Amino acid sequence: MNNEPSTMNKSASDDVISALIGSLSHQHPAVPAAAVDGLVKLGSASVNPLIDAFEASGDQGVQAHIIQALARIGNPKALSLLEDVVGTSVANHCQGNVRRVAARGLGRIGSLAKDAAIIRQAIDKLTWALLTPEDWALRYAAIASLQDIAQPEVMPPLQQALTQESDRVVQARLNRAIAQLQSSS
Fold it and tell me: Which residues make Cβ contacts (< 8 Å) with residue 173, sequence separation at least 6?
């Protein structure tokens, strides 16, 4: 039996992924947004090329689009990269937004994963993001992600954060997450 069609499909898929990743640096904002949508639709097939592109790129805009695509795909292969991005200290708001997107990606991975070790890893990094950074919006994203994961072990860090949180918006989000998790258990 000839495997040529599957090779051609793989090659065509690789070419499409490569073209979409190349489009992430386009100046018109609609082009990178459409490329992210295309990469998300390709799902797991685009994860490794996206991780490679992130590591090869020095362009923060391209990296931000890559993180957005990986966060939306929610594949555990991106867990380490998203953890690194969440833990990166940043100097400007745009980079802070990328951290928040990465935190939401960790929540997606943790909520979809069946492997307890992957879920634990996502919860650990999100707990750090909830209890450590000064960025209130990152803490907010961590709350939403922990709520998405909805495992019993997310409740203690949420309750701990409530005792130390001073931002009223984040307090309200904590109360909502805790109430929703308690009512669903």
Answer: 140, 143, 144
pLDDT per residue as tens digits for the range 17-44 = 999 999 999 999 999 999 999 999 999 9
CA 131-132-138 angle, 5° bins = 85
Q: How many CB atoms lie within 10 A of CB 34?
A: 14
Rounded-to-integer distance, Cα 168 and Cα 34, Å: 36
CA distance 8 to 42: 16
Which token pair is 15? Answer: 């070419």
SS3 176: helix
pTM of structure: 0.87
Under 8 Å CB-to-CB from 167, ≥6 apart: which residues? 136, 139
